[in-house]
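Exercise 3.2. Students should predict the tertiary structure of the chain below and write it as structure tokens, then compare their answer with the key that follows.

Predict this chain's 3D structure.
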Amino acid sequence: MRILVLAQYFFPDMGGGSTRASNVVRGLLSKDCEVIVVTAFPHYPNGQIAKKYKYKAIKPEIIWGAKVFRVWIAPLPHKNALTRIVLHFCYCVSSLFALPFVGKVDVIWAANPNLFSFFPSLVYSFVNRLHFIRNIDDLWPEVFYELGYVKSIFAKKILNFLAWISYVVPIAVTPISEGYKQHLVSKYGISSEKIHVIEVGVNNIKSKKSSAQLDNRFIVMYSGVLGLGYDFDVVLDAAKLLEKYDDIVFIIRGVGEKAVVLKQTITDHRLNNVVLETSFLPQEKLDFLLNSADVFILPMANLNFVEQGLPTKVFEYQSYGKPILCISDGEPARYVKSTKSGLVVRPNDSIGVAESIIRFYTDKKLGAELGKNGKNYILNFLTAQKIGERMYFLFKSYH
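Answer key:
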């Protein structure tokens, strides 16, 4: 099969959207598919465009054997909703630059960005005279409603209609979680038969490395986007409760809109047991740091659009063979429980978070067992190759 993937975010961009698209492409290539990717110049999250892309509208590349067309994107950081929307509109237009070069394809997969990927997919599907399949990494426009960006009833009706169209027109949709599937069925009336849940998965399973602990202390770590989908207040409150333990340290690393506030809060509350790391780390150094964790923490914000999804980092955490402390009442909690890969605490329960950390701290055998369960689950079901196989058979059924 010749498969076209439309994805604003793709390797080497950071984030769940890039990971999702990249893992699927790798998996499809392992099934001997010919894959064409139309993506933006690497730009996420800081908006910095490499010199080799400047003053170009489109640049072809070969990545892992896939033919990749990089198209122009505005050099803007993803610092707020407005800049994100501007970038999405840029990609909607610039993705069509590759139209004369893509040629005939058998399947079109609109990977990201969410609602916006629907529009260029319509054009490519019209030219190729075939239906397309739409991916769902996040629930848009619901995210704008819960964050208070859209309050007008009239605006909500328009956005809901556009979202409904974007779910009805594709021949199939591929959400990343069961929570998203239930939402599409209940709110938009989409037939469950056209909805195929396929998780993000992991490309590289991390081998256990001997990494130096920070002064041999017990490390509770968060690694990922410092964004609105995560509640770091409950983590910092738990850290305050555990100040008397000199050998327990919290490491929060990543970039995002919450970084400045986090830094100020840590300083104001004199949290000497919390380390905030926002510098970029090469993959080797990042692996070394993450391998030093004793527990990974997943502090989901108590918002519907967050709790119905399943963040990429939960799979990445499992790939390191470390236990997860999941703060959630939704899909992430269900997943961690069902895979027996960690402990679950309800949102806003800083005391419960502190008690769970002490449980891991005093029972190393428990952490080792839960970490092993998570890693085995990834190996058995969610490697990039297995995700690619599931996508391959899905695409084949609609080809």
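Discussion points: The chain has two domains: 2-202+383-398, 218-381. The domain at 2-202+383-398 is CATH 3.40.50.2000 (Rossmann fold).
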